[in-house]
Specification:
By secondary structure, the chain is α/β, with parallel strands linked by helices. 38% of the residues lie in helices and 21% in strands. It has helices spanning 3-14, 45-54, 85-97, 126-129, 148-161, 172-184, 189-192, 208-225; strands at residues 19-24, 30-33, 58-62, 65-72, 77-81, 100-104, 120-122, 139-143, 165-168, 195-196.
């Protein structure tokens, strides 16, 4: 591989930035495509958009030329605000799907290693640990504490940072009050509309495990079929 391309790919990985290495199989030329630098008149634009969304590498034929698109995406991760029963049910499902997982909850009675073994568990307030390095467009944020003092900052941060999925537990009445609070902090109507609440797919989920399935299903849908990539 050309040295300049390799250096740019390594920089993209360090910065959690998606990139596709395009190799023209007809003449051997290589180039990089980034989501925010994709031009509509690029003959590979549609294919690149689809592969950024799916995360799958593969061949593309454009006219008489054949290309291989090698997709390099940051590992998607889920940040859960709240060390509750739903979060416990999410852990094995998230692992099986290959997401990185972090659970944050300042309530040390809930955020214990016994309840969440082998999980990145931060018994801290979100405002103390939610950094730019943790929250980006390849992050899904799930707020399930039912406590505005814990959830609101995390939701606001996720919306401002462009997380691909933002969801919050609570009734429609609870969510209405939440929207009022976030709006008063300068969150726009467009941003507020991105919050999935009540959280998860509408499958009639009742138990913590069923709610976890609904949440993870919605996250996967946003990742693979959303418009953000």
């Amino acid at each position: 591989m050309e040295k300049n391309l390799l250096l740019d790919i390594n920089t993209a990985r360090t910065n959690r930035r998606a990139v596709i290495l395009v190799r023209n199989l007809t003449n051997g030329e290589g180039r990089l495509i980034f989501p925010d630098g994709l031009e509509e008149n690029d003959p590979l634009a549609a294919a690149a958009k689809a592969r950024f969304r799916s995360g799958k590498s593969g061949r593309e034929i454009i006219g008489e030329q054949e290309f291989f698109l090698n997709v390099d995406l940051p590992a998607p991760r889920i940040v859960v605000i709240g060390a509750v029963h739903i979060s416990q049910a999410l852990v094995p499902m998230v692992r099986a799907c290959g997401f990185d997982l972090t659970i944050i909850d300042p309530r040390t009675a809930f955020a214990t290693p016994d309840r969440f073994p082998s999980v990145e568990l931060l018994p801290e307030w979100p405002q103390d640990v939610l950094t730019d390095e943790m929250i980006d467009k390849y992050t899904a944020l799930v707020a399930v504490t039912h406590d505005s003092k814990i959830d609101d900052f995390a939701l606001e941060t996720a919306l401002r940072r462009g997380c691909f999925y933002v969801g919050a537990l609570g009734s429609r009445k609870t969510h209405g009050s939440r929207l009022d609070r976030l709006k008063s902090n300068g969150i726009s109507e467009v941003q507020l509309a991105r919050i999935d609440a009540p959280i998860g797919l509408d499958i009639g989920a009742a138990s913590p495990a069923e709610i976890a399935v609904a949440i993870l299903g919605q996250i996967i849908c946003a990742l693979r079929k959303g418009d953000d990539f």
